Amino acid sequence: MSQIKISHHTTKQIIFWIFVISSLCYRAIIITNSHYFFSTADIIWYIGTIGFILYYGYEYFSEKKRLSNINASNLIRKVEKSDYFSRQDKEIISHLLHKLTSKTSKWQYLIVLIISIIAIFIDIIGHIKCWPLI
After folding, report:
1. What mean pLDDT is predicted for residues 121-128?
2. Is 109 exposed, middle or buried (0-12, 13-18, 19+ CB in 10 A)?
3. Is residue 2 part of a domain?
4. 62: nearest Cα among 113, 115, 116, 2
5. What is the pLDDT of residue 1?
6. 52 in a domain, yes or no?
7. How far is the C-alpha of 81 from the C-alpha of 73, rounded, in Å?
8. pLDDT per residue over 26-74, tens digit each?
9. 101 found inside a domain
């Protein structure tokens, strides 16, 4: 029996730390804006936003793959029709599988991903407009 892999443990750890660093960067913007140079806050914002793009992009595609795997294998129907599990086990497993196939989190990841990409483009365009013409 082949096992379906969502991702490797190392990849998940890297993505987790990208999220932590991105979150810290967003909080550090407040400190650098009030105590240091504006360009420092700008650099930290870019690091945080790019980190969020990587994190939410990874989560979006993982959710998409998970949903596809559950649907392609007909897993929910198999569990519900199985005689192997007790009624209570079937309810628990079915509930978990339905939660995993919920499209809400996938759309949340996609929305944050798109908003982050748009924010970077808007900021880059704003910086280009501010550059002196030579």
Report:
1. 79
2. buried
3. no
4. 113
5. 41
6. yes
7. 14
8. 877 776 766 666 677 788 888 889 998 999 999 888 888 888 888 888 8
9. yes
Asked if 96 and 118 touch (Cβ cutoff 8 Å), the reply is no
Give the number of residues written for the chain: 134
Global pTM?
Answer: 0.65
Q: Give the position of tokens 């909080």.
A: 27
C-alpha 25/C-alpha 43 separation (Å) is 9
Structural domain boundaries, residue 80: 9-130
Give the number of domains in the chain. 1
- Using the Cα atoms of residue 51, residue 54, residue 60 and residue 63 in order, give the sign of their dihedral: negative
88 in a structural domain: yes
User: b/e map of 67-103 (b: 16 or more CB within 10 Å)?
Assistant: beebeeeebbeebeeeeeeeeeebeebbeebeeebee
